[in-house]
């Protein structure tokens, strides 16, 4: 069961890179876990730490990379990730949104996201927001200032309200918005359609019996 | 199979229409899924979800599971040494037992990379919807199946309901027209396409590949092309059905048999886009212009022909792009304008779901035959895509060709495509790889990956640097 998405105000962390892939979000060695949680400390592991991380390791004593934005004290409590186009490309690993969520991010803003990744974020109650390049550029300019930018995210009204500047409207698929606002369990919803699925299977079996042979 | 509609439809439209259980008020379809492939990395949390909710798979027989990402490619009799990897593989075995799902375990000769064994077993058939918790599920689109990667929550959704909630993606036609030049392979085609449209070029789309150069490819070459659709950002890749598709499927263990096969084949032959069908986007590529491709950076779109140079970021107008070029060159340890043919390599990897099939091994062996890897090469490994590919290669004597040339001949699995097992690059090592991703750290932290075709990889192993296989 996913948590319902409520309006909140959060700090924006600007990650000024395009094509950030899911291998970078959570490197492969952490995919060996059979759990759904515990990935937060290894989010962006290879960029964030100076040493090589292994699963099960205590990350609190590892040397931090001072040049990586996640380690910048201005963004210590960031809940909104601002980034460039095609974020989340590559592998379908749901460990990527699990790591972002585990770290504390709730909203991602970019000019575009990779398809599977975007789907995975929504399934985990994270909100991916697509804004045009110009608006993203403007937010980057604001977020890089001495005091961190804060944004109030209102999914109900489909609006971002930055601590400085004008409110920004955003688009989102109506079904995704509905699921996020209500924290819906997809599987439960689909199971309510079991009769329709069975009817489909029966119809299909007559047309294409080989699909049901084994 | 759906009612004939008057307007011409694409292959994608046909498969989509045939799988809609219902459409809700938001326009989201409940899409029926015919087959699901399962591997050890993206499934444990899905099975755990089922258990926690007290749910059962709706059609256990519609799933096939295999461990591939974590398995060792040498000394298999020792089992999996890394305890965390071992636990993941054992968890898959236990889940399959508990939920009644067929498993090709590590000792089974049919074990291999999930996207190699699906087609090999005849499990992937035209007109099906196929999913797997793995982005390279797009491979199966070579059979005119709508095949796409999903996340773990969706793996659980399919197990429990045999359906997925999906918005219909857009459609894109990539037509590769005319004939390929000598020595140019499916891998070069798909790298050239990605170079042209970019890694986000297909985002939100299902790509259908067509044109003479695609028709001329074998089923295996078609799988290589569809495999890397995800590197072009696409949801899936698709190729229409012809007699090569039907012939490939005849007699496979999970193909329909007897009259059932002919009945299925008649339906399969209807699975092509209608003349005049419209796509949201069309890209045309001249096959004759494609040269052997080598990636130079850390994204598959950072690719150039062998007879050119590493690009100069200063000549790139877009500042975001120039920035990522600089970043990539630093990571890759390359200077702008270095000729590709002057880049020396340390390791060679031939394998993966992109290029680990029998034809790929044949192409590499043809180059390696009677030659030897360069003294500067620390490791050159050949990892067959499945146990059956391995058997076939050994029956043809390819293993001996590789061994004589100084390559290591390994057991099947994902291996150094993503380095989750012991096969990996050390920091700074440079690799010619037939896999699909050159991301930072993909083949090992600090490792530098150059994506190429199997023949180009074998030639690079022999020369110790990249060479044009056409002049080799
Ligand atoms: S071979 Fe590589 S790309 Fe293919 S499934 Fe395995 S890890 Fe993924």
From TrEMBL, chain B:
GO terms for molecular function: 3-isopropylmalate dehydratase activity; 4 iron, 4 sulfur cluster binding; metal ion binding. Binds 1 [4Fe-4S] cluster per subunit. Its cofactor is [4Fe-4S] cluster. Pathway: Amino-acid biosynthesis; L-leucine biosynthesis; L-leucine from 3-methyl-2-oxobutanoate: step 2/4. The keyword 4Fe-4S applies. Residues 13-464 form the Aconitase/3-isopropylmalate dehydratase large subunit alpha/beta/alpha domain. Heterodimer of LeuC and LeuD. This is 3-isopropylmalate dehydratase large subunit. The lineage of its organism: Bacteria, Pseudomonadati, Pseudomonadota, Gammaproteobacteria, Chromatiales. The gene is leuC.
């Amino acid at each position: 069961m996913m948590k319902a998405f409520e309006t909140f105000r959060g700090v924006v962390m600007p990650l000024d890179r395009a094509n950030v892939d899911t291998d970078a979000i959570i490197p492969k060695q952490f995919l060996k876990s059979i759990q759904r949680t515990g990935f937060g400390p290894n989010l962006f592991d290879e960029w964030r730490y100076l040493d090589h991380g292994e699963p099960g390791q205590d990350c609190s004593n590892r040397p931090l990379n001072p040049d990586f934005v996640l380690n910048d004290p201005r963004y210590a409590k960031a809940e909104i990730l601002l980034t460039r186009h095609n974020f989340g490309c590559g592998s379908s690993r749901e460990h990527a949104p699990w790591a972002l969520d585990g770290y504390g991010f709730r909203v991602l803003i970019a000019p575009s996201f990779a398809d599977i990744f975007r789907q995975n974020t929504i399934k985990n109650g994270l909100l991916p927001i697509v804004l045009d390049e110009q608006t993203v550029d403007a937010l980057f300019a604001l977020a890089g200032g001495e005091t961190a930018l804060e944004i109030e995210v209102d999914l109900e009204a489909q609006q971002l309200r930055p601590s400085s500047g004008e409110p920004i409207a955003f688009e989102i698929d109506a079904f995704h918005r509905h699921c996020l606002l209500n924290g819906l369990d997809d599987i439960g919803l689909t199971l309510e359609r079991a009769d329709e699925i069975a009817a489909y299977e029966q119809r299909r079996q007559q047309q294409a019996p080989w699909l049901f042979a084994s | 199979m759906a009612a004939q509609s008057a307007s011409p439809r694409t292959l994608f439209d046909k498969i989509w229409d045939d799988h809609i259980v219902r459409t809700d008020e938001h326009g989201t379809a409940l899409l029926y899924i015919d087959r699901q492939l399962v591997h050890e990395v993206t499934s444990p949390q899905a099975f755990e979800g089922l258990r926690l909710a007290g749910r059962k798979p709706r059609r256990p027989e519609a799933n096939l599971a295999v461990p591939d990402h974590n398995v060792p490619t040498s000394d298999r009799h020792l089992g999996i040494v890394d305890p965390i990897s071992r636990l993941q593989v054992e968890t898959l075995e236990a889940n399959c037992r508990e939920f009644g799902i067929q498993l090709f375990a590590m000792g089974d000769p049919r074990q291999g990379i999930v996207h190699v064994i699906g087609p090999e077993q005849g499990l992937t058939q035209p007109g099906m919807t196929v999913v797997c918790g793995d982005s390279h599920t797009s491979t199966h689109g070579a059979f005119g199946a709508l095949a796409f990667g999903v996340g773990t929550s969706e793996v659980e959704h399919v197990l429990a309901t045999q359906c997925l909630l999906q918005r219909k993606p857009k459609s894109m036609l990539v037509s590769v027209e005319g004939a390929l030049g000598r020595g140019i392979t499916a891998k070069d085609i798909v790298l050239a396409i990605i170079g042209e449209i970019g890694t986000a070029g297909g985002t939100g789309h299902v790509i259908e590949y067509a044109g003479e150069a695609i028709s001329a490819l074998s089923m295996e070459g078609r799988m290589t092309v569809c495999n890397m659709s995800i590197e072009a950002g696409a949801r899936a890749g698709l190729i229409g059905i012809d007699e090569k598709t039907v012939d490939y499927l005849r007699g496979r263990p999970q193909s329909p048999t007897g009259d059932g096969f002919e009945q299925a084949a008649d339906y399969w032959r209807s699975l092509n886009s209608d003349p005049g069908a419209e796509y949201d986007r069309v890209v045309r590529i001249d096959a004759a212009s494609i040269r052997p491709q080598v990636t130079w950076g850390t994204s598959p779109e950072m690719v150039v022909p062998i007879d050119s140079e590493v690009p100069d970021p200063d000549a790139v107008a877009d500042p975001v792009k120039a920035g990522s070029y600089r970043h990539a060159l630093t990571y890759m340890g390359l200077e702008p304008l270095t000729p590709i043919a002057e880049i020396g390599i340390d390791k060679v990897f031939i394998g993966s779901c992109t290029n680990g099939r029998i034809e790929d091994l044949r192409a590499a062996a043809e180059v390696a035959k009677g030659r030897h890897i360069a003294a500067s090469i620390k490791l050159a490994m050949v990892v067959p895509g499945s146990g059956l590919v391995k058997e076939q290669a050994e029956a043809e004597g390819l293993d001996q060709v590789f061994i004589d040339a100084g390559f290591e001949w390994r057991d099947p699995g994902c291996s150094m495509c993503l380095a989750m097992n012991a096969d990996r690059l050390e920091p700074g090592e440079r690799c010619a790889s037939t896999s699909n991703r050159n991301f930072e750290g993909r083949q090992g932290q600090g490792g530098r990956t150059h994506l190429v075709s199997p023949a180009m990889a074998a030639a690079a192993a022999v020369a110790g640097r990249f060479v044009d296989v056409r002049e080799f």
